[in-house]
Amino acid sequence: MSRIGDENIVTSAASSRRRPESLPQLHSVGRPVKQTIWQELGHTFKETFFPDDPLKSFKDQPPSKKFVLGLRAVFPIFDWGRQYTLGKFKSDVIAGITIASLCIPQDIAYAKLAYLKPEYGLYSSFVPPLIYAFMGSSRDIAIGPVAVVSLLLGTLLSPVIDPETNPVEYTRLALTATFFAGVTQAALGFFRLGFLVDFLSHAATVGFMAGAAITIGLQQLKGLLGIKKFTKETDIISVLESVFSQAQHGWNWQTIAIGVSFLIFLLVAKYIGKKNKKLFWVPAMAPLTCVILSTLIVFVTRADKHGVQIVKHIKKGINPPSADQIFFTGPYLLKGIKIGAIAGIIALTEAVAIGRTFAAIKDYSIDGNKEMLALGSMNIVGSMTSCYVATGSFSRSAVNFMAGCQTAVSNIVMSMIVFLTLMVITPLFKFIPNAILAAIIISAVINLVDIGAVILLWKIDKFDFIACMGAFFGVIFISVEIGILIAVCISFAKILLQVTRPRVALLGNLPGTTLYRNIQQYPAASTIPGALIVRVDSSIYFSNSNYVKDRTLRWLADEEELNRESNLPKIQHLIIDMSPVIDIDTSGIHALEDLNKSIQKREIQLHLANPGCVVMTKLYDSGFVDVVGQDNIHLTVGDAVRACNRKIQEETA
Amino acid sequence: MSRIGDENIVTSAASSRRRPESLPQLHSVGRPVKQTIWQELGHTFKETFFPDDPLKSFKDQPPSKKFVLGLRAVFPIFDWGRQYTLGKFKSDVIAGITIASLCIPQDIAYAKLAYLKPEYGLYSSFVPPLIYAFMGSSRDIAIGPVAVVSLLLGTLLSPVIDPETNPVEYTRLALTATFFAGVTQAALGFFRLGFLVDFLSHAATVGFMAGAAITIGLQQLKGLLGIKKFTKETDIISVLESVFSQAQHGWNWQTIAIGVSFLIFLLVAKYIGKKNKKLFWVPAMAPLTCVILSTLIVFVTRADKHGVQIVKHIKKGINPPSADQIFFTGPYLLKGIKIGAIAGIIALTEAVAIGRTFAAIKDYSIDGNKEMLALGSMNIVGSMTSCYVATGSFSRSAVNFMAGCQTAVSNIVMSMIVFLTLMVITPLFKFIPNAILAAIIISAVINLVDIGAVILLWKIDKFDFIACMGAFFGVIFISVEIGILIAVCISFAKILLQVTRPRVALLGNLPGTTLYRNIQQYPAASTIPGALIVRVDSSIYFSNSNYVKDRTLRWLADEEELNRESNLPKIQHLIIDMSPVIDIDTSGIHALEDLNKSIQKREIQLHLANPGCVVMTKLYDSGFVDVVGQDNIHLTVGDAVRACNRKIQEETA
């Protein structure tokens, strides 16, 4: 603020003589325009479900135009497709090839995570990306099966039907879950409930991903050590148990030799890619190289005869139709719905997070709800063409981005390559050693453990850190769903705690200004003799109204005690800065009334500064404005203080 | 604000030439003093559990003094007792007699609500009030059985053990529930969890009380119409069914005659008391008069021979010990704990609400946690002396207050009169017609239906109204617990909705000031060319971070469109007023970072105005301050605008 302003003077009582009492207030906190309940509800509804006003562009357009717009809205490809150029196509082809080479080995590996036959992984990288390319609005996301969702499906489905004894039924259940995952996603998008995904906070996701990564990594010890008998549990204890119980004769040294050496190779490639961003293709190509090399080695040495487990069977040809396999009736229907819903939501969170990240980098906006519709449709169609839940993959999307993809066309290219793979070379994959797949998975999920993010959480917000740890330990010690549940609960507990125990700050005047700030934050701020200024740092609700009242009265009591000790003038005015008070409910208003009653008994006048729109309306409706008096409601704390000083003056005069 | 101030000038770019660029800011938003995690947690813990700093007075006192203070803290009677005078005693005696005459008939009636023998009602008005008088801190509350809690106990206990076929076991279960109700209350108080009671919002309580009153009233039709077979369900449908199914031969005209005539008498008395506050004793005495008159009538006419049901059995003598009757083991223990906990909490809410109301009127403070400890101990002792859950009664406390009670001594007086009643005249009560008790209950619970409050809820806060209705219909159509549950859920849903979809308001300058206010609330406010000012009306959390980001970007897009249409200068600065943003979590900071990224792409500079203590700390820790630049964080929106204008100027110059 300026020194030459007169603000520093008006704050002292003496000077207020300089301004005539008659001086009218330039502005006052009047009664806001009354809204009908329908306007209120309508506004709430709109802001909750249609904050982005999706139909805006449709307004006053001819029907034909409306249809085209609608088509473009549902299939963005007809929108960006029109500006598609050969240049873009070139970069998309390169990106597409790169992610294809990365996805093929990953797909086979992830399918095993979900206890499905390897070809299902490839199927899921053929159809869904095509659908997404037409409906999705993200340009960088790479669609396909991902580690976490595969793990989640595997752990949720295998207790229902044992994949080993009854693989056919198990696959059917998986397809059922996929179908309902798609339905869930599409429904969330269609009913504009996209915001529910935000309830899984960043902190929770970080912890949950790290936990999942470690769980997945540990499970790979099965393949990496060539262990035959292995637990289906995912919690760290039972996994480690079944690892070391096998240590004596369960481990196979050839397998370990191959697995570990290639794992080192992959990690080195990763490291190179990290060090030099230009070499991003090194880690991208590495897995396929591993697969080819290891397959050759096994093929030549016939290591599979010496206990090195290999993929063995992998079906040739593209996705068989599977609509008839989905359980629409019978005992497994409900299970399928439940598991599908969970998997669908987790898949969403991952995809939406990725979409947002890259949208922010390239500064284009993606519509969460539209994305969900796209992902949903893609999984519904997928479930009818032998695909399991597909979504956006962190690792592949990053590669896609670095490879310079321009549009979703890179997904089409990728899916075409997967198509060729399925038609031609899948039989060769049967010699891939499981150890290599394990190595590929481990090197892929390692990135999901984001230590840096965790440290940041600790530094910035301890509560977020706790939520993150809750998710992490929940996942590794109990199960994926529980982990998520814990994190969500902690996150909301935080919000409620903040609402239940808001800060009630003591304000003081910043010398030389009419500004009043928290004296904790601004030690320079000085209190006003004869007046106490507090600010309530939250909306006033039933859950905090009594606290706010009591806390304020306590500030008052403490101050009065201080004043008595250092015989300062007794407090005659209580000013409440309402700026942060966005909303108030009836309990809150009762608290204010009680507060006012008890300070009136002590001949202290209540003043309100800068109450907002909603609050003002409610204060009027409740008649509290008349109780405090319209002229004790001020535009700023400064005005309030000036009014108090004037009153004090009049009395002393 | 003042006209002669220079604020109105500084807001226009042209004038900023008048102040030298070198002019130092008087104050700036620096880095707040860093708190260790332990300080943070410690503060949160203290404000959550010890906001009233209960041990303050104990600080640096000699042990002996500490002991005395401790004694007074647990037994306030040793505190206020010392200033007790004969004058106070006189008023307490009068008040005590008045509430005694009111409570005796009510006790007998309420005991029937809980399916207990009538004497248990009287027992519960003898011991608990004595305990409370020593430990309680409210001066006006009148302790004893109340309608709602009696109903709750009855409905929760009777499904477990049938009170008619197995009254002994039933009574034992009731005592068990009472014991654990006391334990729950004492525990809440002891562990400083008193604030949990606030989670039952005012709106919920209003609806719940009204619902309970109607349920109770309807149940009284049994007694009033002299129906023998009656449902144990409390929901309105099954009650009305069993009323009208009996209409043909179930009703007893003599009973109806007596019941209805006395009900009218009671209501008239109530009306008189309402019209003329001085005659408060008329409704207070009316019930006892009814009892005496009706008893005489029945005694003389032997109406009980003509199907008028009477109390029949009522035991003489004071509370027998009952500690040995409580189920500390066996199948009923768990049931007892669960029911006790529910009843205990409901009883608390009622008592605390009453305590607060009268404390506010007479301006003395009651310590919620201490109250709970008192009520808890009183019920624990009660459960060992044949009392069922007692708490503060709305109706009797009001009478107590109007009769001019000074201290809890009025409770002692009342309990002494109950004692005499038990010793001497109980046998006479056996002729009381049940119809009279029904009439007394109806006339008592009518007050619980507070139409005025409901209308106020509707006027002030639609959401509170919905919560209230939820509780109301939940209670009358389903059950008391469900009703409460519904209300609590709605109340919290509201808070979360408010946090998930905060208002992002567009701010404008109030002409002639440096103030920036919501242009919706202050139509006079005018926007600043080249700058967009928004205010986020909530803390920024994971649940709203994306919404806040998108909403802000939308404001930006809309404004830019407007500017293009009415070719105004393009927006170069985005100012976010952070005043209401009390807290921010990592998701929130990510949202800000994304926001900043995407506006930088459009060459728009981000400014933050007046971020609070917590937010500032986190912005520093996350390094976001360096991203925006320290000099783009301002003390007020005014400063921010001035800075923007200066920049715009420099560019144009």
From TrEMBL, chains A, B:
Localization of this protein: Membrane
CC per GO annotation: membrane
Membrane topology listed for this record: Multi-pass membrane protein
Chain segments annotated as transmembrane: 141-161, 173-191, 203-221, 251-272, 279-300, 339-361, 373-391, 411-429, 436-458, 470-493
Family matches, as CDD domains: STAS_SulP_like_sulfate_transporter (cd07042)
Signal peptide: none
Name of the protein in its database record: STAS domain-containing protein
Source species: Chenopodium quinoa
